[in-house]
Amino acid sequence: MPAPTFTLTDAAGQPWSLADHLDAAAVLVFLRGDW
Amino acid sequence: MDDPRRHAALIHKLDLPFPILSDPDRAAAIAPFGVADPKDPREIARPATVVVTPDGEEAFRVESRDFADRPPEDEVIERLGALGLPPTSQDRPATGPAEPGPKAMPVDALLPYYRGARFAVVALDRRHGIGDDAGAYVAQLDRYFEAMKSRA
Fold first, then answer.
1. What is the pTM of this model?
2. What is the ipTM of this complex?
3. Residue A17 contacts B where some CB pair is shorter than 8 Å
4. Which residues in chain B have Cβ-Cβ distances shorter than 8 Å to A20?
5. How far apart are CA B20 and CA B1, in angstroms?
6. A19 near A26, Cβ under 8 Å?
7. In a 3-state reduction of DSSP, which class is residue B122?
């Protein structure tokens, strides 16, 4: 099943796209943020 | 869900080698991946791990029932290794201005926090006979505890 593609903002405020990071497996960990 | 300033503070605090991304309106990744928590009024994500292969396919995922239910890291790493994909190098994440939120716990407080949580779960298990779920949570706290001790 194709994974959804997305672009989100990283901790530097820069866009981060899944498509740019698929040279190997990408491990996406969803966590609850309240920090 | 948190904003980049809080993520930057978390990366500094725990010396994390991977980026943390914000999905503040849950629309870009949390909803498309189907990991929103229907029991949470804010519909923030349940803890979940999703592995995507270089061809963009989802290889596998491990979804938790709630925040107290996390798969042992070893299980995920073993399944990841079984895919036989080449390793990649990744730059340490860049961060902008760091500002922890008001609920952020200092790193020195994490060990007594884990210890207190462990005692509470053990006590509740003795009182109510929770069983496997309690054992799994205690094991998770023990892994966190050892990770923090090895960092010191």
1. 0.89
2. 0.94
3. no
4. none
5. 10
6. no
7. helix
